[in-house]
């Protein structure tokens, strides 16, 4: 049986992707009744064709959480319209000065040491702090945010089944009650004394003349905690990995800093932070001569699609000047990631700071890095680095 979820494969899944994509781009795992899509066109279709592929999925352990990403129109359209108000281009751009301040606050204590764990000391807390401020939650609650986010992301283990999946579901059920109680208290405060923050806007929002329920607000809250932090954390970590593994590209970026936006897009393609998305077939679907029956759980493997040589020239080459670069790291269609612009902004600020302030940057360990706990993401849980103390 193909094991996509071993540590060795998760560190470098791309040779396996190539092997399966070239021989069976539509892959059936009969022991789990799960189907997987590996080629660019197949994955892209699963992401945008919501008439054929539903986002309301049933993983092996049961129904998926009641979140925006696991909903279809018309409910998805209404809920997305509400959350989009907080992610307008103007509102995202206005965050840049504060993101820069937070980046400096995290980096300053590390500079004299000449070493740090990039994941724990910088790339994990930075997006958590940004989301906390957007929501209007005190920064003292950041450790709780990080713990909750990790538990939420561990729900990805439901795709593999077994004891680990059951443990993830039980742990989430317990933490969900903790989050519900916390959120109910905060929302009560916002109703009494509104603030200029995302939680206040969610409390005041209406769908068809009705305010959102606590369960709907809790769904938004969980999604922001997980997707709003994990993607950016992995994007920053993966960018440093890519640049250190390709010193010619790092030298070029240092010589031409204007290439940074293009470099970020190439990191998103080359080491996609989210490796797969979940769908369920609404009807029988034929792809590449295979028929996926209706009602089947489908993994659309974005990390493979973004290395498809039929779409990308020299697909396994990391090239910060790649153009065009039509990757689908943030999804495609009606479920395109709402936080994509924010993630790109945070990554740009972070990499500008890291490359400017950390001279002689290198990995501080030759040990294989440990993948993050969530099965559907790609990136290290720890990333020790060294640099010249300053």
Tell me what the structure shows.
This protein is an alpha+beta fold. The protein has one domain: Cytochrome p450 (Orthogonal Bundle), CATH 1.10.630.10. 50% of the residues lie in helices and 10% in strands. It contains 16 helices and twelve strands. The strands form four sheets. It has a five-stranded mixed beta sheet. A three-stranded antiparallel beta sheet has the order 4-12-11. Helix 12 (214-245) runs parallel beside helix 16 (340-357). The longest helix is centred in the middle third of the chain and has 32 residues, at 214-245. The protein is globular, with a radius of gyration of 21 Å. The chain starts with 6 loop residues before the first helix and ends with a strand.
Approximate helicity band: 40-55%
Average pLDDT over all residues: 91
How far is it from the N-terminal to the C-terminal residue, by CA? 50 Å
Give the amount of beta strand, in percent.
5-15%
Order of helical and strand elements: HHEEHEHHHEHHHHHEEHHHEEEEHHEE
Shape: globular
- Assign the CATH superfamily: Cytochrome P450
Low-confidence stretches: none
Structurally, the number of domains stands at 1
Number of DSSP E strands: 12
The helix/strand class is alpha+beta
- Biggest sheet, spatial arrangement of strands: 1-2-10-7-3
Radius of gyration: 21 Å
Largest sheet: 5 strands, mixed
Count of alpha/pi helices: 16
CATH class placement? Mainly Alpha
Question: Can you tell me the CATH architecture?
Answer: Orthogonal Bundle
């Amino acid at each position: 049986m193909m094991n996509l979820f071993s540590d060795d494969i998760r560190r470098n899944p791309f040779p396996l992707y190539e092997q399966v994509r070239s021989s069976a781009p539509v892959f059936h795992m009969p022991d789990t009744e799960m189907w997987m899509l590996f080629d660019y066109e197949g994955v892209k279709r699963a992401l945008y064709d919501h008439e054929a592929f539903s986002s309301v999925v049933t993983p092996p352990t049961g129904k998926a959480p009641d979140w925006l990403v696991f909903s279809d129109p018309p409910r998805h359209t209404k809920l997305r319209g509400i959350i989009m108000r907080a992610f307008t281009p103007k509102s995202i751009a206005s965050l840049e000065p504060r993101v820069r301040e937070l980046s400096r606050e995290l980096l300053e204590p590390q500079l004299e040491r000449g070493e740090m764990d990039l994941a724990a000391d910088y790339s994990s807390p930075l997006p958590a702090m940004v989301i906390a401020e957007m929501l209007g939650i005190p920064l003292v609650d950041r450790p709780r945010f990080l713990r909750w986010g990790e538990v939420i992301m561990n729900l990805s283990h439901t795709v593999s089944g077994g004891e680990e999946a059951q443990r993830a579901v039980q742990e989430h059920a317990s933490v969900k009650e903790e989050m519900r109680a916390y959120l109910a208290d905060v929302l009560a405060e916002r109703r009494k004394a509104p603030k200029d923050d995302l939680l206040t806007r969610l409390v005041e929002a209406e769908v068809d003349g009705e305010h959102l329920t606590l369960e709907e607000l809790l769904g938004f809250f969980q999604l922001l905690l997980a997707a709003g932090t994990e993607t950016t954390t992995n994007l920053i970590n993966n960018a440093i990995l890519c640049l250190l593994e390709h010193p010619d590209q790092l030298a070029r970026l240092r010589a031409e800093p204007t290439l940074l936006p293009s470099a970020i897009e190439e990191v998103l393609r080359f080491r996609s932070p989210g490796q797969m998305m979940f769908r369920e077939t609404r009807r029988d679907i034929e792809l590449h001569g295979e028929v996926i029956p209706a009602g089947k759980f489908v993994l659309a493997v974005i990390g493979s699609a973004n290395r498809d040589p039929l779409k990308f020239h020299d697909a396994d080459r990391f090239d910060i000047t790649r153009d065009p670069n039509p990757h689908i790291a943030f999804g495609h269609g009606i479920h395109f990631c709402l936080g994509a612009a924010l993630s790109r902004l945070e990554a740009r600020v972070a990499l500008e700071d890291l490359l400017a302030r950390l001279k002689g940057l290198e990995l501080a360990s030759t040990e294989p890095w440990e993948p993050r706990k969530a099965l559907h993401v790609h990136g290290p849980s720890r990333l020790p680095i060294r640099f010249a103390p300053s």
